[in-house]
Amino acid sequence: MFEIQQENALLGATILGIDLTKDLKNEEVTSINQALAVHQVIFFRNQKLSSNDHKRLALKFGNLQTHPAYPTVKNFPEITILENDRDNPSKIEEWHTDMTFKSYPPLGSILIGKIIPESGGDTLFSSLASAYDDLDDDIKKSLKGLTAEHSFEHGFKESLAEPGGRERLADALIDNPPVNHPIVRTHPVTKRKLLYVNRLFTHKINGLENKESKKMLAYLCDHIQKDKYVCRFVWEKDSIAFWDNRSVLHKPDNTYWPQLRRMERITIDDINRPY
Fold first, then answer.
1. Of 260, 233, 237, whose CA–CA distance to 49 is shortest?
2. Which uninterrupted H or E stretch holds 137?
3. Could you tell me the pTM of the whole model?
4. What values do phi and psi take at 67, rounded to 5?
5. Which residues are known to be catalytic?
6. 23: DSSP letter
7. What are phi and psi of 180, to 5 degrees?
8. What's the rounded mean pLDDT across residues 109-122?
9. Measured between alpha carbons, how far is 244 from 10 in angstroms, rounded to an integer?
10. Is residue 224 within a helix (H) or strand (E), and if so which, with residue range?
11. Domains of the chain as residue ranges with CATH
């Protein structure tokens, strides 16, 4: 069985001694699932996965989602291409959880580094459970029972503002109306409580006046991204990050621009709606 090397006290672990190009045994899948729930994001190095390998690996953990806005690998609609260079800078600067604009956001995402810049391009992850644990009791009480609106339109406002953006994303806008999720959700495996808001997709807190909603969202998002909740993954070619989309936020370090960076990602369905 493989070795687990913890990154820090709150989140992150590197899995050593496993070859993901091979078909995983049931006990390996179980152990990886357990490591993911406990460590929230897990990393692998030197994994030369083909698109077939990537898809086969992801299917071990659930059904696969497609993304309404990003290009995909030919013949693999499940594999999203995240590629940026001088002519196509990244539009994602904010901390976020993938696709919370869906009623059933993904369980997790498996991201592979295909072309890595010489400097920059790291990915940062933040623990939503640890951030919740440290909130004052009065704030925890004030958040109990509250929901927030998550919006595709809010998250992709820059793309929509581009010439032809609304036409290009017209179907995605229709298919992804705003949804509500609890601000504090419970992880279905660990049963830990988590803050479930992010700057990219969380548009407003329901039941609060606009000014109060903005103030509370800003406070919570600032709190989540404090350094003590964060681990940083430094990419190498053929490295993999597999994160629990229910329990971490993430963001890219875009200081690599204008260098070329290409990543390929699969997101995995969750059968549970946030509760």
1. 237
2. helix 137-143
3. 0.93
4. -105, 135
5. 96, 98, 250, 265
6. P
7. -110, 140
8. 97
9. 14
10. helix 210-224
11. 3-268 (3.60.130.10)
